[in-house]
Every structure is written in C-alpha cells, then in structure tokens.
Amino acid sequence: MPHILDKKRRYIALLLVLPLLVTSCAHKRAYKKAMAFEEEGRFVEAAEQDLRALNKKHDYDDAKNHLKNVAPKAYQQLLTRAEDLQATSKWIEAIETYRQIENLDNRFQSHGVVLETIDLSSRIAWAREQGRDHHYTSAERNFEAGDYLRAIAEYRMVTVIAGYYLDTKEKLWRSYVELGNQKLTVQEFQAAIESYYMPALEYATDMEATNRLIAEAYYQWAVKLASEGNNRRAYETFGRTLEAVQGYKDADQRQEEAFEEALQRVAILLFRNSTPYGGQYSSLLTDQLINKCINANLQYVVFATRSHLDRIIQEYELTAAGAVDPSTAMEIGKLEGINFFITGNLTQISEQTTSPSFVERTHKKTVTVRDSTGKEVKKTETIYYREYTSRRTVQIGASYQIVDAETGRYIRGEDFSERIVDEARWVRYQGSVYDLPENKRGLLDAATEPKSADMLINDGIRLIAEKMSQKIIRYYR
C-alpha cells in the first residue's frame, strides 16, 4: 500500500511540473527560432520570436539582449517595405504596414527596447490622405469613362481607407445600377439582379427606387419565361417581383395566369381488371392511387377526385374498364380542361396455398423423482411434439399508362409486381405446455391458417398503389 501511494505522489508531482517544463522549452525554442530568422535576414520574424520568448519568460536575458540588437533591423525592414508599397501606389498595404510598425514598436517598449522612430501617426495620416485621393481620382476617371467595374473596385478602396468620402457611396450605387442596366438590356436577368442590383442595396439612399429596379428585372424575366412556355418558373419569378415591390405593375394577375398555365389536371380512370378475380380489387387499386396522388399536394398538379371521375365516365359514356381511345381523350381533355389521363390494368392475381406439413421435434426436460429408497433424484426425459407450417402466397401484377389529352398519345407507362407471403406455424402436443421449450409454448394456441387470400391481395394492392403513386408523383413533380 505505501508503494502505491508513492507512485501516486510521483505522478501528481509530474503533472505539476510538466507545464513548467513545457514553458521552459517553449521560450528556448522561440529564442532559437529568432536566431535562425536573423541569420536568414528575416528581422521582423526574428523580433516576433524574441517577443514570444519574453512573453513566456519575462526575464529571459538572452532573448532580451537579442531583441535589442534585432529590433532596429526589424523596424527598418518594415519601414522600407511600407515606403516601397506607397511608391507603387499600394496604399492600403502601406497603411497596414505602418500600423504593423506602430504595434511592434509598442511591444518593443513594453520590454524596455526604445527606438528612434519617425512620427508614425503623422505618416499613417499622410498615407491615408494620399491613398484616398489616389483611389478616388482613379475611380472618378473610370466612372466618367463608363468602366463601372474598375470604378467600383477603386471606390471600394476609398471606403477601406476613408469610409464614404465625398460622393463615394452614391457613385458605388450608380455604378452597380449602370452595370445592372447593361445586363438587363441583353436579358441577362440573373446577373443583373444578383450581381448588381442587389449589391446596390448596400449603398442605396433610396431603397424603394432600388427595389423597383429589382422588381422590374424580375418582371421582365418572368414575362420572358411565360412567353417561352416555362410557366412554373414564370409563376415563381412573378412571386419574386412581388417580394421586391408589393403590387408591382400587373405582376399579381400575371402570376395567377402563369399558375393556371402551369397547372396540370390529371384524371386517373378506373383500372381495368384482366384477372378472374372480382372487380373490387381494380377499384381498390384505383381509389388508393387517387388518394395517394392527391395527398402528395403537388404544387402544379391537380388530380381529379373519384366523384369527378365518376361524372366524367357517366357523362361521356366511358366504360368502367378504364380504357380511353385517343379521340375521346382529346375531346374530354378539351371540354373538361384535363391535360392527362392515367389508365391502368390489374394484370395478375394468383394465389397458392400449401397443405399443412409438420416436423417431429424433441425436447429434453429435467424432472425430479424419488428412487426406491425415497430419495429425490433428477431425471432427464425426452418430449416429442409436432411443429406444423402452412403457407399462402399471392402474386399481383398491375400497370399504368399516361395519356396526353392534347395529342391522345401514350407518353409513359410501367409495370409493377408484388409477391405477398404469409405463413402459419403451430404446435400440437398432448402434455403440459410447460414441457415445451419457452419459445414454442405460444404456438400451441397459434392460428392454423395463414392470412386469407383476400387480406393478402389487399396488402399487395396497397404496396403496388404506393410504388405506382411514387413514380407518378415523381414524374409530375
């Protein structure tokens, strides 16, 4: 036990000392990097590493002495860099470099290293003034020449240096608007809106006027889409028009017209039944398909209800078998405003039931009995019982076709098939239920017949209706 306590104490002591060791290593590593950077002529990086070493250990003399030596070189290196940048009119970079010098000098002073420097505050103010005037003059020149992209780039430089100097904000707005107008003229609507009119909002003093530009661009785009027959996108784009400016021109009315044009009206006719089974199954498939399609709530599709469908069948004397010839489809489509008919056929229903079969099974149970002397002893007995099975299988097939009411042509179709199986399992045994294995005891009272054929057919119809509706919904979506 004392040995275990000693190990714990050593471990705790190591945890306490480890941060100190890491810190010690860190300041020495930083100092070594400073020496290496100086040899490479990278005096700014060398000074930064000395400062890092001193942050780790404030009284680290090696780093402090090295900093006194390298600080003037770092200062001069940055100053030369700043002056080179301003000589090439890179004013923002020059200003940032002067600020870097200012920051570095303050950090030098915090460690007792004082340099003779220029008046950095005045130099920064002068560089800001020069940079502002340089970029503003360039921006004005490009703006007058109609080179709005370059004008924007230069005006933005002005804002970085001096904020919204003079009329910079207004010129940025006008530049973006002019570029948007150019794109609108050549019907590049998306670029006009997203690349120019919307960014112009940042600089707009009249938000309403800018939003009207956006609304007009969306409006023209929507009109073009509608003229091309792309009514879904036209509807959505008129919506964007109204989001920008409520009640803009006749966008409300045009949006409704586009929606009506985009809307597809679909009638699912009663499926034919080509099987020897009763017609209730084709009716069930039709009803389930109609309900699933209606419940999908497709934005641009309306499925006729069963009552509407029954009226059409009766009024146009269609057979309940669901067939519709091309000329009838075209006539009904025109009179009822239906764009598509969906016809279908229940092609197969077959059922097979296997006779009950059984397997002889055994189970060993342990019982307690008394021997000839009256002493209790354990004895193993073998139990015999029969496990029966019976299986019913139903195979269902169906198909659908989509008819274009305008042309009377079939434009899409697909076949579906489902195999539904149910198995009954039960046990026959004359003895106590507790003689059987636990997992077999419930089979003593189990059903001895699989699900009825009618139930399995209904299950298969539901599965086919689900898969068929998914295909139809995906097509119209």
Can you walk me through this structure?
The chain has helices at 2-39, 43-56, 61-87, 91-110, 120-144, 148-162, 168-185, 189-200, 207-227, 231-244, 251-262, 280-295, 306-315, 326-336, 438-441, 453-476; strands spanning 264-268, 272-273, 301-303, 340-353, 357-370, 376-404, 410-428. By secondary structure, it is an alpha/beta fold. The chain folds into three domains: 24-118, Serine Threonine Protein Phosphatase 5, Tetratricopeptide repeat, CATH 1.25.40; 142-264, Serine Threonine Protein Phosphatase 5, Tetratricopeptide repeat (Alpha Horseshoe); 266-371 and 383-476, Rossmann fold. The longest helix is centred in the first third of the chain and has 38 residues, at 2-39. The two termini are 76 Å apart.
Count of DSSP helices?
16
Which descriptor suits the 3D outline?
Answer: flat
Largest sheet composition: 7 strands, mixed
Compute the gyration radius: what is it?
43 Å
Helicity level? 55-70%
- Tell me the domain tally: 3
Write the layout of secondary structure elements.
Layout: H1 2-39, H2 43-56, H3 61-87, H4 91-110, H5 120-144, H6 148-162, H7 168-185, H8 189-200, H9 207-227, H10 231-244, H11 251-262, E1 264-268, E2 272-273, H12 280-295, E3 301-303, H13 306-315, H14 326-336, E4 340-353, E5 357-370, E6 376-404, E7 410-428, H15 438-441, H16 453-476
